[in-house]
Amino acid sequence: MNSQCCGTPDLSGLVLIREGAIFIADSHYNSDRNELVTILEKIHNGEIVTNQLFLMGDIFDFLCGESEYFIKINQKPIQLINELSHKIDIFYFEGNHDFNLSSIFPKLKVYPRQNQPIEFKLNDKICYLSHGDIFTNFNYNVFCKIIRNSILLRIINFFDFKNLISKSIETQLNNKMICRKIDNFDTIIKKRIDSYPKCEYIIEGHFHQNTNTIYKNIEYFNLPSAFCSKKYAKMSQNCNILEVIDI
């Protein structure tokens, strides 16, 4: 990663991204997509060694704290994440498919969409992290507030007889095509960088593009989708490279 100095801000209160930190994004876990469990089990058994895990959103194809059905069908990775949280620091950036998660993951640092991006420290520079579905238009922002409304979600869960509503959502998500190359993504990146506060690094998921670029002396990295690319990322070489690794 580029480490050009852009001033000397006070970074004393920021969490440091350490060498060996693991980043998982957009695994969209469901019964047919096991990439997430594969990575978590490798961390659990010591095949992947790390003391920091960043879950960058859309980790599950769908999960929220109010849905009994989706909590039940996602129990395996939920249990693995909670077990790992007793051993390593885990940061969860809620996405557009997984939200209202604090009750499910009590020992994790969970960042809701409305609090993102989150400021971290990397190489004594400012690094912003988010899932990526921020800096969006008014209609999308309203939609996000509606679908995250806990009262509404509890009502839906109450009337989810025989899990018919949940299974309908599950089927729709299973049939959704989520892996594609975005045309003119370089232009999108520049607009996103301009939307962030002053920093030196930006790390996002959401777009599934597995690419990085430098613009206005800011290094931007869009993480690979663990499902689409079958890859995750690791901070390596004295935090100078965000390395992409096959699952």
Would you mind describing this structure in some detail?
The structure is a single chain. The protein is an alpha/beta fold and 247 residues long. The protein has a single domain, classed as Purple Acid Phosphatase, chain A, domain 2 (4-Layer Sandwich), CATH 3.60.21. It is 27% helix and 23% strand. It is globular.
Give the CATH topology: Purple Acid Phosphatase, chain A, domain 2
Main beta-sheet strand count, sense and barrel state: 6 strands, mixed
Q: Separation of termini?
A: 22 Å
Could you name the CATH homologous superfamily?
Metallo-dependent phosphatases
- Count of all domains: 1
Principal-axes shape call: globular
Low-confidence stretches: 2-7
Total strands: 13
The H/E string reads EHEEHHEEEEEHHHHEEEEE
Q: Secondary-structure blueprint of this entry?
A:
Layout: E1 22-24, H1 35-44, E2 52-55, E3 63-64, H2 68-73, H3 75-84, E4 89-93, E5 98-99, E6 109-111, E7 118-122, E8 125-130, H4 138-147, H5 150-158, H6 164-174, H7 185-195, E9 201-204, E10 211-215, E11 218-222, E12 231-236, E13 241-246
